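Repro case for the chain-ordering regression, as requested:
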Amino acid sequence: MADGFIDLDYSEYPAEVMQERASAFYDEVRRRRTVRDFSDRAVPREVIEACIASAGMAPSGANQQPWHFVAVSDPSIKHQIRTAAEEEERAFYGGRASEEWLSALEPLGTDAQKPFLESAAWLIAIFGESYGVSEDGSQVKHYYVQESVGIATGVLITALHYAGLATLTHTPSPMGFLNSILGRPSNERPFLLLVAGYPAVGAQVPDIARKDLGGIASFI
Ligand code: IYR
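-- result from build under test --
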């Protein structure tokens, strides 16, 4: 065997089993919805740890794993994040966003108030490392950072949903305040703030549909 290579750990499923597994997975993920109304019930840290560990298994450019996740349950840090995010959101909804953008958001019923940033059990701030820093302090070029972090975030959202938690992808813009509040270095750029927890009892979601397969894929 070539140096630096090991055998693939792979188990093949018969075609019918593959079909069953693919359909069962679809039935799981089709129920995922973005939730904006969270309960303040605690969620064990170990669940979040396992989901983040799954996200860390995502493929990445040159296997550089250019991501960092900060999981926040501390109420005072959540309060600081909410205060900073709402300040940006007020600017966004109060004039920074175009009319076209605001009308695209209308079906979602969003506004500058972000109470879930304090009520939800966990906020997971996801950072992309625009470059790495080696032991001697020199910069290491990273490749496909946005793609890699986006894939890892997708795995994280799916893992949290699969575990039985609700999530919300929140993107206050700009998000630089996350570096200062969470003490992250300047080579890390905030990618997304993922809110995770139990949905509030009676939580509602917008009555919007996903495109069907024909609307998102072609087979040739
Ligand atoms: N960041 C704002 C606005 C917003 C933008 C998009 I695109 C959304 O899909 C949802 C919200 C906010 O969080 O309200």
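Ordering looks correct now. Residues 75-96 form the longest helix (22 residues).
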